[in-house]
Amino acid sequence: MARQVWITPRPPTWVPSLDHLQIKHRTKDDAIEQRLRPKRLPLPSSLPPEDEAKVEALLKQRGIISKYAKEQVSNKDLERLKPGSWLNDEVINFYGAMILGRSDDSKENKENGVVNGVVSTKKNKLLNVHYFSTFFWQKLVQDGYEKGRLAKWTKKFDLFSKDIVLIPVNHNNMHWTAAAINFQQKRIESYDSMMLDRSSVFKHLRGYLDAEHRNKKKKPFDFTDWEDHVLEDTPQQENGYDCGVFTCQFLESLSRGEETFNFAQSDIPYLRRRMIWEIGNARLTTDP
Questions:
Q1: Contacts of 157 (CB under 8 A, 6+ apart)
Q2: Which CATH fold topology does 70-111+122-281 show?
Q3: pLDDT band of 117, cuts 50, 70, 90
Q4: What is the pTM of this model?
Q5: Measured on CA atoms in the order 192, 196, 198, 204, is the torsion positive or negative?
Q6: Which of 20, 109, 239, 271 is most buried when burial is the number of CB atoms within 10 A of its CB?
């Protein structure tokens, strides 16, 4: 009699569906993104009580409120940091002067820093920056390099020794944006809280960079590997008056080597209050 052999059926081969594959790759991508861009620390919703009291006191003062380097702001200037107001040259240039001063004072910063909104255990340095006042862009666009005598703006330093050059841009007295010449990354950068066309910014800054190099180095600037950079997820404003605050915060973040930004429209009320405190005390609160 033949021996009966029982064969256990083999389990069916599992073939991952498209959904499973997408989830797997998305999880992997998220893990990589988390390593490259650590989770940001959210901004607070308000200043500490003692700082809020200081802000209220500053807003009640009259006359010249604060001075820093060659810049000063009056009570009328400071009031532009109240909700719903458009920032003027005085506020933006005061803020830019503090950014420049912090960089100059901290060229050999040896302490831990803050990068992309996260406290780092690595030793980070503030970038070696130069800040051009709001009048630079006006001169460049209206007069050009030669007629605007822009060579004199860099008479006391070598622009090409900087890590990054920060430039507030006023578009026809209707909109503020931030621009940068990033020598570290080889990029002309533009950050616009309304994502408008940036072609004129890139064109003018490339022209300036070449003219400055010809003037100071006696030869054309080498644009090999340079690119025009627009950050796709640049924070966007949801009204017609917060562009100046966005611009100041873009410039401040760039001065610390950030390539993305840790704020959104919902943070602007807090940032306006913080800027009042910073200008009134002539000190940035974001010192690494």
A1: 130
A2: Adenoviral Proteinase; Chain (3.40.395)
A3: very low
A4: 0.82
A5: negative
A6: 271
